[in-house]
Amino acid sequence: TESLDEAFKLLSSVMLLKVTGELTPDDDHEVWVKFLSRERSMSRGEFRRRPLGKFVQESLELYGLEGCVPALTPCTKALEDKIEGELLDAERHSRFRSAVGKVMHIQQDMKEGQYTKKELARELNAPTVHSESRLLHYLRYCSGCANDYMTIRPGPTNNGINVDVDASWAGCKRARRSTDCIVAELFGAHV
User: Fold this and answer.
1) Three-state SS for 183?
2) Which residue in 108, 109, 130 sits closest to 119, CA to CA?
3) Phi, psi dihedral angles at 133 (to 5 degrees)
4) What is the pLDDT of residues 20-40, one digit of tens each?
5) Would you say the pTM of this structure is higher than 0.90?
6) What are the respective helix, strand and coil percentages of the chain, to the nearest 5?
């Protein structure tokens, strides 16, 4: 830690820095530190991160879904297909944009719903009633994941980089666009 203190002191001499918390390994209990609208924790050689619950909570409040029954999946097959339909009025469109913006902020820490979030973001310009149904389902899913966190655990036997790739190859029936995805691991930890 002495070398980190020296580095911090050197950087502070040429730029404005602010210490927002100290992330130290604690094997007895979890201590979460807030940093850039996210929470971080370290314990037993693992690094954990999660978004602040306020982003999901505020989105749930926009739609009056506090205390709702959580959905088990980020999306369903029936909701996955985009259906042309009635566009949202100005008030509902504004609420849709606000809620999607909040869930886009948490996507870095909640990997399991990234496809759904991407599709919702593609519809920000002209959301339909069906788009709103998909958002409501996703918000119900997020309500059940409020205390979930992502664990980054470097493995002692994993040395190097591993990248898995997948693509839907024009899976969008309406626009015939492809969606691709990568999962990268560095020394056994997802990055």
Assistant:
1) strand
2) 130
3) -60, -40
4) 777 777 666 778 888 888 888
5) no
6) 35, 20, 45
